[in-house]
Design brief:
Number of strands: 2
Number of domains: 1
Order of helices and strands: HHHHEEH
Shape: elongated
Strand order of the largest sheet: 1-2
Strand content: 5-15%
CATH topology: Arc Repressor Mutant, subunit A
CATH superfamily: Winged helix-like DNA-binding domain superfamily/Winged helix DNA-binding domain
Number of helices: 5
CATH architecture: Orthogonal Bundle
Structural class: mainly alpha
Radius of gyration: 19 Å
């Protein structure tokens, strides 16, 4: 096993710290907006899917890195709050798509604006920490 220098540990720790600070901010912002962090993540995943990926339970489960049944439970809660709805696909009636409601869009828009502001503030530190890791890796490879 390769020896790992102290500088590598420090750069990895700094990057993880920056990510964790951002995630802590995100979790708190979601709760203050009246949704749980995973519910916010689901709303964002539905709205921010890459082009060509349909907003099905399976696709969202994959994007959230959770099991299908966990996604179903999250959708059930969001649907009961009027933030998301299930809709049969017009192309394949067996397929159920997830659609944000007007209220779901509103909650997500507010949270996304807060996240963009936060990233403007902390982004440089996050990028600097990642640059340090990549710089260490480049030096090791060379």
């Amino acid at each position: 096993m390769a020896r790992i220098a102290t500088a590598h540990y420090r750069s990895l720790a700094a990057f993880r710290y920056e990510i964790r600070k951002f995630l802590a901010f995100s979790e708190q912002a979601a709760r203050e907006a009246g949704v749980e962090p995973q519910q916010h993540q689901l709303l964002l995943a539905v709205r921010g899917l890459p082009k060509g990926i349909r907003p099905t339970i399976g696709a969202i489960a994959e994007r959230l890195c959770v099991q299908h049944h966990t996604t179903v439970a999250l959708v059930d809660k969001l649907e009961s709050r009027g933030l998301i709805q299930r809709q049969r696909s017009s192309e394949d009636r067996r397929e159920v798509l997830l659609i944000l409601t007007t209220e779901g869009e509103s909650v997500l828009r507010r949270l996304s604006a807060l996240h963009q502001d936060q990233l403007r503030r902390v982004g440089p530190a996050m990028v600097g920490a990642l640059d340090a890791i990549l710089g260490n890796l480049s030096r090791d490879a060379g």
